[in-house]
């Protein structure tokens, strides 16, 4: 018997549950949520309660928006011998020569074209896309409708907001989004974004915190 847990019982976790049921339909898999703050002893368990369940096979998918917490929970699962899995909506399109790391969540209508490298624990929400010759690091998050055009490099823990557009780079000078950078909702990014900065607007510019 196989038990799969969605780590996170908030809105995003509840969106992932039907994708998991669809992906594992007919395989006799049971599903629960893990949420240490919302645990109710029924279908929302603490992590320790999940690990203590009797099923010999246990897996977990991390439906946690905060990428730093996602990284910590990945380590927690692996230390406890819990496998990390991903999920892909039935209408997701993945074309040629695309490598996707462990634990990816690809929601409905996500499109990855060709010659793409994606790190582990990637979240791509509804209608997000990644075009050709892109390199995406670990723990990167794409909010709904995020648009990443060709020849873009995105470093670990970056967040691309809803409807944001990343301009296409070139093979010799890809557009780069630095580690931990945040691209705001609807922003249009036309040049490199340094690590740790938040950029907003069209064309995107650094957020001033006066």
The third-level CATH topology of the largest domain is UDP N-Acetylglucosamine Acyltransferase, domain 1
Backbone structural class:
alpha/beta
Strand order of the largest sheet: 6-9-12-15-18-21-23-24
CATH H-level homologous superfamily name of the largest domain: Hexapeptide repeat proteins
InterPro entries: AcTrfase_PglD-like (IPR020019), PglD_N (IPR041561), Trans_hexapeptide_repeat (IPR050179), Trimer_LpxA-like_sf (IPR011004)
Organism: Sphingomonas xinjiangensis
GO molecular function: acyltransferase activity
Protein name: Sugar O-acyltransferase (Sialic acid O-acetyltransferase NeuD family)
Main attributes?
3 helices, alpha/beta, Rossmann fold, globular, single chain, 2 domains, 8-stranded mixed beta sheet, 6-stranded parallel beta sheet, 210 residues, UDP N-Acetylglucosamine Acyltransferase, domain 1
Task: Furnish the topology, listing elements before pairings.
Blueprint: E1 2-7, H1 11-23, E2 29-34, E3 44-45, H2 47-51, E4 57-62, H3 67-79, E5 83-84, E6 87-88, E7 93-94, E8 98-100, E9 105-106, E10 111-112, E11 116-118, E12 123-124, E13 129-130, E14 135-136, E15 141-142, E16 147-148, E17 152-154, E18 159-160, E19 165-166, E20 175-177, E21 182-183, E22 188-189, E23 198-200, E24 205-206
Parallel strand pairs: 1-2, 1-4, 2-3, 4-5, 6-9, 7-10, 8-11, 9-12, 10-13, 11-14, 12-15, 13-16, 14-17, 15-18, 16-19, 17-20, 18-21, 19-22, 21-23
Antiparallel strand pairs: 23-24
Write structural notes for this entry:
- There is one protein chain.
- The strands form four sheets. An eight-stranded mixed β-sheet has the order 6-9-12-15-18-21-23-24, covered by helices on one side.
- The chain is α/β, with parallel strands linked by helices and 210 residues long.
- It has helices at 11-23, 47-51, 67-79; strands at 2-7, 29-34, 44-45, 57-62, 83-84, 87-88, 93-94, 98-100, 105-106, 111-112, 116-118, 123-124, 129-130, 135-136, 141-142, 147-148, 152-154, 159-160, 165-166, 175-177, 182-183, 188-189, 198-200, 205-206.
- InterPro entries: AcTrfase_PglD-like, PglD_N, Trans_hexapeptide_repeat, Trimer_LpxA-like_sf.
């Amino acid at each position: 018997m196989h038990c799969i847990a969605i780590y996170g019982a908030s809105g995003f976790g509840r969106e992932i549950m039907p994708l998991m049921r669809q992906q594992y339909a007919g395989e006799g898999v049971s599903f629960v949520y893990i949420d240490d703050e919302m645990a109710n002893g029924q279908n929302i368990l603490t992590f320790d309660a999940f690990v203590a369940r009797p099923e010999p096979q246990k897996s977990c998918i991390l439906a946690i928006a905060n990428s730093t917490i996602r990284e910590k929970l990945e380590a927690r699962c692996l230390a406890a011998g819990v496998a990390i899995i991903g999920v892909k909506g039935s209408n997701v399109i993945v074309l040629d020569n695309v490598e996707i790391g462990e634990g990816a969540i690809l929601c409905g209508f996500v499109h990855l074209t060709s010659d793409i490298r994606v790190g582990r624990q990637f979240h791509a929400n509804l209608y997000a896309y990644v075009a050709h010759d892109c390199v995406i690091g670990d723990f990167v998050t794409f909010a709904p409708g995020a648009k990443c055009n060709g020849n873009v490099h995105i470093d670990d823990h970056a967040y691309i907001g809803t409807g944001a557009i990343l301009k296409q780079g070139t093979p010799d000078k890809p557009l780069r989004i630095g580690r931990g950078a945040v691209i705001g909702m609807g922003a249009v990014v036309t040049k490199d974004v340094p690590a740790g900065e938040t950029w907003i607007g069209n064309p995107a510019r650094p957020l001033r915190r006066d």
